[in-house]
């Protein structure tokens, strides 16, 4: 490999050679390799994140192809993590890609979260989101969580170092904030933008760069091209970070 691959990173005072080494030493767990996970994994791999763990039990469906940009027409029917691994290794052979092609139970998720430097929640359903959050809180590992539906996106960063808040603090009950995109539809570039921002926020966490997304919920109205910001307060009844 030419030494030029990360030249534009190394030219930044916020990254430099030291930051690039930090990225190389990092392990990123991405749960969900769909519309969010594909661009997140692609940018993290291209950026030189050392180890990327891909967790998804699903196979590629034709209806995924409009937005799940690691997959091609001949990927239909194949396991998402296997196709993604091949694509990412072609993109950057210096990156180690680990595939987990099954749904992780609570214990297994916690083990994976503990091994990670940062966890990306790129799933499309509320119960998995809660499970990923719980694992990240218990492991004390930062969580970057994103969602996309219709023309709407959301994005948050929770450092999970200490007293909260966490993603679960946003919800008083287990009611679903978002449906999944199967039932609701989604404009293809919306998860692309949110997933790409998730990769960027993960990098910033690894590099120790501050973000206004920390303990905030950013809501993106993609139709109006408008961002709204909500401070996430600690929910004293939160079963995950306050128990
Ligand atoms: Zn909480």
How would you describe the overall organization of this protein?
With 243 residues, the chain is of the alpha/beta class. It has one domain: NAD(P)-binding Rossmann-like Domain (Rossmann fold). The protein is 35% helix and 19% strand. It has eight helices and eight strands; from the N terminus they run ααβαβαβαβαββααββ. It has helices at residues 7-10, 16-25, 37-47, 80-91, 106-115, 126-139, 181-184, 189-207; strands at residues 27-31, 51-55, 96-100, 118-121, 143-149, 152-158, 216-221, 226-231. Helix 3 (37-47) packs parallel to helix 4. It is globular, with a radius of gyration of 17 Å. Residues 164-166, 168-169, 235, 238, 240-242 line the site of zinc ion.
CATH homologous superfamily heading: NAD(P)-binding Rossmann-like Domain
**CATH top-level class:** Alpha Beta
**What small molecules accompany the polymer chains?**
zinc ion
Specify Rg, calculated over alpha carbons. Answer: 17 Å
Q: Report the principal-axis shape.
A: globular
Please tell me the CATH architecture by its name: 3-Layer(aba) Sandwich
Q: Which structural class do the helices and strands define?
A: alpha/beta
SSE map:
Elements: H1 7-10, H2 16-25, E1 27-31, H3 37-47, E2 51-55, H4 80-91, E3 96-100, H5 106-115, E4 118-121, H6 126-139, E5 143-149, E6 152-158, H7 181-184, H8 189-207, E7 216-221, E8 226-231
Parallel strand pairs: 1-2, 1-4, 2-3, 4-5
Antiparallel strand pairs: 5-6, 6-7, 7-8
Helix pairs in contact: 3-4, 3-8, 5-6
Bound molecules: zinc ion.
